[in-house]
UniProtKB/TrEMBL annotation:
Protein name from the UniProt record: ABC transporter related
Coiled-coil region(s): none
InterPro entries: AAA+_ATPase, ABC_transporter-like_ATP-bd, ABC_transporter-like_CS, ABC_transporter_ATP-bind, P-loop_NTPase
Keywords: ATP-binding, Cell membrane, Membrane, Nucleotide-binding, Translocase, Transport
Domain ABC transporter: 1-215
PROSITE patterns noted in UniProt: ABC_TRANSPORTER_1, ABC_TRANSPORTER_2
Family annotation (Pfam families): ABC_tran
SMART domains, sorted: AAA
Biological source species: Kineococcus radiotolerans (strain ATCC BAA-149 / DSM 14245 / SRS30216)
Length: 226
């Protein structure tokens, strides 16, 4: 994925101001930024949901998005939600395979409103992955979940990533989450990528290296770590 000089304004307010961003195939990039810095605006542009005013956006042919809210249709059972919009490919077998990947095959016939928040978010991930995307866009998909469920979701994302190998752009407020999941963490500020850090492979949660990296990123965000 290759974005160059992307500009996007809402009225007079310039949100993205000549933003450059490249993500290699299979690379996992997390994007941090203060509230209102334009993270969702960028994701919407990459997903083709908003027009590009200036600059170029090159994305692979298959792009999937998962949002903070699972956005499931309540009147369709779980399995149909997973394969919604796949046309002739929308088979129950295909949905079950995707649901197996998120350990929810047993809930295939459940109604979305009977799922827990974490389960609904897993269905949303299954729906994003069933298309076999080359680029997966995640807009704070775990933000509404409790801390324990979030850690379980991190393990699941790692496993799904190892299996599917899409390029991933994860938007998050959570520095720890960014470092735990990504190969590279970037900070969005004033409409551009203001800096970033590479996460060395094999870094472990809570290790001194990770804490130093998190402190660096908080500095880049202009937040003083205690
Ligand atoms: N449809 C819209 N019309 C007008 N302004 C908008 C619209 N969508 C977003 N904005 C403004 O653009 C700026 C960036 O919004 P965006 O949602 O991309 O930020 P964000 O970094 O994702 O924020 P948060 O972390 O709080 O979700 C904000 O100032 C917001 O008020």
């Amino acid at each position: 994925m290759d974005v160059r000089g992307l500009r996007r304004a809402h009225g007079d307010r310039v949100v993205l101001d000549g933003l450059d961003l490249r993500i290699a195939p299979g690379e996992f990039v997390a994007l941090l930024g203060r509230s209102g810095s334009g993270k969702s605006t960028l994701l919407r542009a990459l997903a083709g949901l908003d027009p590009v005013e200036a600059g170029t956006v090159e994305v692979p042919p298959t792009v999937s998005v998962a949002f903070q809210e699972p956005r499931l249709l309540p009147w369709e059972p779980v399995w149909r939600n997973v394969v919604l919009g796949l046309g002739a490919g929308a088979t129950r077998e295909r949905a079950l395979r995707a649901l197996r990947g998120v350990e929810l095959e047993a809930r295939a016939d459940a109604w979305p409103l009977t799922l827990s928040g974490g389960e609904a978010q897993r269905v949303s991930l299954a729906r994003a992955l069933v298309r076999g995307p080359e680029l997966l866009l995640l807009d704070e998909p775990f933000g509404a979940l409790d801390a324990l469920t979030r850690l379980t979701m991190h393990d699941l994302v790692r496993a799904l990533r190892a299996e599917h190998r899409p390029a991933v752009l994860l938007v998050t407020h959570d520095v720890e989450e960014a470092v735990a999941l990504a190969d590279r963490v970037l900070v969005l500020d004033a409409g551009r990528v203001a800096g970033g850090r590479t996460v060395p492979p094999g870094t472990e949660r809570g290790s001194p290296g990770v804490v130093a990296l998190e402190t660096d990123l908080l500095d880049l965000l202009g937040v003083r770590a205690r």
